[in-house]
Write a structure and sequence with these properties.
171 residues, 12% strand
Length: 171
């Protein structure tokens, strides 16, 4: 999860496109990072910190947070985002493809010399056009190559990888 905590004007209004960016695998870990951003709140528990921040948004009569820490963190960020205090940013996804992969594929496709699903010919053309690393990778990763060509590469469907199916506020 990646968020931007917006800076505030003197009258408490969030400043768009400005502020610190925090990133961690889960909502709870981002909340913990946020909690420790200032020495003035480290003596509070994470829950007390979250409730204090939300009281500035909702007032003292705000809705309580769930008991589960991960769900509480998700709710915390959801409510902050609703008021513009934080913004969810796109997580950076590491590409499973080698450098110049898309460039090589486009060069072969634009040449019109083969059907891109005629994999042996496509690999030969990738090599011929000056992309030896991409050609070697393609030989060893036929499934990934075909998924890319037919438009369903796994890069667009990342897994959380943490075994948790608890959604975060930005998911």
């Amino acid at each position: 999860m990646k968020i931007q905590i917006h800076s505030m004007t003197l009258d408490g209004k969030p400043i768009p496109d400005d502020g610190r960016v925090l990133q961690a695998p889960t909502c709870l870990e981002v909340a913990e990072q946020m909690h420790h951003q200032t020495p003035f709140t480290t003596d509070l528990s994470l829950r007390e910190y979250q409730l204090r921040v939300l009281s500035k948004i909702d007032g003292e009569s705000g809705k309580p947070l769930p008991d589960d820490p991960e769900q509480a963190a998700s709710e915390f960020f959801t409510r902050m985002a609703q008021h513009g205090w934080v913004e969810f940013l796109q997580d950076e996804i590491e590409s499973p493809y080698p450098e110049q992969f898309q460039e090589a594929i486009e060069a072969v496709r634009d040449s019109g010399r083969t059907n891109m699903l005629d994999v042996p010919v496509a690999i030969e053309l990738i090599l011929e056009m000056g992309y030896p690393d991409v050609a070697l990778w393609t030989k060893d990763h036929l499934v990934e190559y075909v998924e890319f060509i037919i438009g369903e590469p796994k890069i667009f469907f990342p897994q959380t990888g943490n075994g948790s199916d608890t959604p975060c506020a930005d998911k």
